[in-house]
Amino acid sequence: MLIRTNVNGEERQADVWPGTSLLSMLRDHLGLVGSKNACEQGECGSCSVWLDGELVCACLVLAAQAGGRDVRTVESLAQGDRLHPVQKAFVDAGAVQCGFCTPGLIVATADLLQHDPTPGEETIREALAGNLCRCTGYQKIIDAVRIAAECRRA
Amino acid sequence: MSTKVAERTRGGVGESVRRVDGVPKVKGQFLYGSDLWAEEMLWGYTLRSPHPHARIVSIDISRALSSTGVHAVLVASDVPGRKTYGLEIPDQPVLAIDRVRYQGEAVAVLAANDLELARRAAERITVAYEVLPAVADMEQALRSDAPNVHDFGNVLRHIRIARGDYNTPADVWVEGYYETGMQDQAMLGPESGLAIPAEDGGIDLYVATQWLHVDRDQIAPCLDLPPDKVRLHLAGIGGAFGAREDLSMHLHACLLALRTRKPVKMVYSREESFYGHVHRHPARIWMRHGATRGGMLTSVYARIVIDGGAYASSSTAVIANASTFAAGPYEVPNALVEGTAVYTNNPPCGAMRGFGAVQACVAHEAQMDKLARALRLDPVELRVKNAVSTGSVLPTGQIIRGSAPVREVIRRCAAIELPPAPSERDPLTYPGGAGNVSRGERLRRGVGFAVGYKNIAYSGGFDDSAECRVKLFSGPGGVIAEVHSAAAEVGQGVHTLLVQIAREELGIDTVVLHPADTSVGSAGSSSASRQTMMSGGAVQMACRAVRDVLFERARRAGLDRELAPDIPVAIRDGQIFAGARRVGALVEFLDEPIEQTRVYHHRKTTPLDRDGQGDPHVTFAFAAQRAVVEVDEDLGLVRVVQIAAAQDVGHALNPQSVFGQIEGGTAQGLGFALMEEIQLKDGRIRNPSFTDYLIPTILDMPPVVSVLIEEPEPGVPYGAKGAGEPSAIVSTAAILAALRDATGRELNRVPVRPDDLIGLAPPVQSSGPPPAPNVPYPEPVPKALGIL
Ligand code: FES
Ligand code: FES
């Protein structure tokens, strides 16, 4: 089936199986591999994207459900060489190791800071509880969120 | 007075340099194995055994082969070369031969236009099995009436370490029995890669792996190709932790690509990943410790059995590690350690961060606490009293030659400030968070302490050398160094470290990395905390060789007096300095590039002899942790409040990344203590998903307060010790101790479940250690018998 959708501001289309997830459409049909596929079961958050501005796990959304809607992925955040403040904070804080969880965490953090520009530690933890990271132990991720929040305020 | 040799170069050794792959990773542009793509690429898929043990009566692939979009279906008879492979012992079939030995064993592979077509076609392969009785328990495997997993029996390796008389009289004895479950590495990036057939009949494989060259050496004979026609290239790696030491999809993708003459990509799903890689060995450990009234250890007896599952993988080395570390980082004059790795029809186990030392630490640290209680001594002081130091003799007879600041590690850890007792609190901070339905009426706090250690690099006489090539040339923007190493960047930061070292040694800013592949010599594995020393050493040597050539050129160009042998020469900011005097710019001597290749070897070690004596390990890194936990005694829920960590790192070459290793390793240890276990029933995995196999989330992780103990290791580059594993070894044991302190319960099995904490489940029992098998030599059994 043919799906038309707006991805990162561009009209895109893909011919997919009816059962194809939004994640698979992005990765395997549209070549946008920034969103990751660690579980494809809604457990890890590595596939986090915005669908009409709402944070979703792209693996739990059918490509067909995204038809005619607006999808925004991690690839939309940096402007050329200029990193989004959340991206810069993750690099500076050492919150990236293997980086497989990183795109999802960056999208989830950017979403959190849109809703709450000054989150406390418990809020950060609750907001990112759906994003698994196997490498960092999360401490530097919390640092990165704080740095990004400060940087947004400045 | 000596002249100052070199100022710190920007981004050199000792700085918390930003990762070289950080920006592409945060932008989502870094290409992992699962992101690769090629024109006309097919997707590979694996059909796996549903049975833990069965005879294959017949396989019919005809319906699959005629399915739409399918290009090839392969079974064992299609493997052109050797039919089996393995890291240490080639006992694992590339595709099952007549028999399957574990649930999930690969039986057939196929390639189709897309993954969905491939999955559907796999359902049309008909395999007739005759189910055989399975060996699903490691102690059952040792019994004479157990079915044989392999024709030569179920004992893979038996290690016996005997020193002094372990029955020597003691004032106090403590005994214990401990079990550890099967942990999964759960790296977030699934197994993945892309095989591309080459014009010359060879193959290019882009793959996420820990050691390109050992993969190649296993792949080439099975493909019946000379090694130089099997070219491996490192794809982006989404974590490893041991799971990528063994082959997974590598050979299957190569076979399919060579058959179809098209690129073939394979990516495991999360479920398949649980079947597609080895796990941490479950262990059963019996220990008895003897000590004087004053608290000095006199004797340690340890009996260890680990479940290797159906194939050898690295079990032979894991049991050697578990056995040599059984007594912990303590001086003990008398010891008997008997360690056995057995074959069963459970999923194969192999490398995982900590590699046998984790299981040992759970047991020896519980014993130290028991001993402290029996002697009414402070558990921390008991550890300080008995801690090894440089010059100590281990139960293997090995003398610790390197730095061993164990007492300082223990003391510095114990001195970290304890978290305050909570006063007014947000109910979300109760154990269980939002899932807690009590008001915290029965919260108990507990504190536990653990010390452990880990060998760095490969042991037992193995020469896991590392090669590196460095090219210095003048480019458009100035002088550039290119570093070519096959070291796998698994997330730990080795690529950044290699760049830092090159900057430091060559005194220039611009260092680029050549992609890691097999066109340079082996870097050895990104495991055993070894790359800092090994590939770090190789890049340092190669850079120094480049400098020698450069200075020689400068001397020949007329600077021989300025660069006389007795004057310290240095490079900084692209300039050559003799003493404090600038004598020339690098670029003047780089009309021709300089390229040098060097190989770093660690000091030689020896295998264990029949009494387990020898000099098996290169060197050691030590760590201590103190855990503070809260247990809700009504609900059996736990919150870890704080982890205090001290680690012996020699010299932190990139402190931020060293702290990152400590925090990450601690999280995996916490997971093992509290939630992570592959649940097996009759050899079958019950929880192959992130829904049912839980790993710590950001809500589960407490603050980790760490201190680094920097006592440089003599004779290794910059005195640095690898930092990847020690935290993962001690945190499980520390949390376990804290849970015991909070609940007063025995808790002799990890992971600890809510039922254990509130007394619904009794401690695990054993009727005593199984007798040692009749294997009077330390070599792996199939090797000693000359079978494999
Ligand atoms: S891949 Fe979507 S939540 Fe894990
Ligand atoms: S950095 Fe590897 S999973 Fe988070």
UniProtKB/TrEMBL annotation, chain A:
One of its GO terms (molecular function) is 2 iron, 2 sulfur cluster binding. Residues 1-77 form the 2Fe-2S ferredoxin-type domain. Keywords: 2Fe-2S, Iron, Iron-sulfur, Metal-binding, Oxidoreductase. SUPFAM superfamilies: 2Fe-2S ferredoxin-like, CO dehydrogenase ISP C-domain like. PROSITE patterns: 2FE2S_FER_1 (PS00197), 2FE2S_FER_2 (PS51085). InterPro entries: 2Fe-2S-bd (IPR002888), 2Fe-2S-bd_dom_sf (IPR036884), 2Fe-2S_ferredoxin-like_sf (IPR036010), 2Fe-2S_ferredoxin-type (IPR001041), 2Fe2S_fd_BS (IPR006058), Beta-grasp_dom_sf (IPR012675), Diverse_Oxidoreductases (IPR051452). The keyword Transit peptide does not apply. The keyword Iron applies. This is (2Fe-2S)-binding protein. It comes from Candidatus Segetimicrobium genomatis.
From TrEMBL, chain B:
Its EC number is 1.17.1.4. Keywords: Oxidoreductase. Residues 27-133 form the Aldehyde oxidase/xanthine dehydrogenase a/b hammerhead domain. InterPro entries: Ald_Oxase/Xan_DH_a/b (IPR000674), Ald_Oxase/Xan_DH_a/b_sf (IPR036856), Ald_Oxase/xanthine_DH-like (IPR016208), AldOxase/xan_DH_MoCoBD1 (IPR008274), AldOxase/xan_DH_MoCoBD2 (IPR046867), AldOxase/xan_DH_Mopterin-bd_sf (IPR037165), Xanthine_dehydrogenase_dsu (IPR017609). Pfam families: Ald_Xan_dh_C, MoCoBD_1, MoCoBD_2. It is an enzyme of class 1 (oxidoreductase). Gene3D superfamilies: Aldehyde oxidase/xanthine dehydrogenase, a/b hammerhead, Aldehyde oxidase/xanthine dehydrogenase, molybdopterin binding domain. GO terms for molecular function: iron ion binding; xanthine dehydrogenase activity. NCBIfam families: pucD. PANTHER family: XANTHINE DEHYDROGENASE, XANTHINE DEHYDROGENASE SUBUNIT D-RELATED. This is Xanthine dehydrogenase subunit D. The gene is pucD.
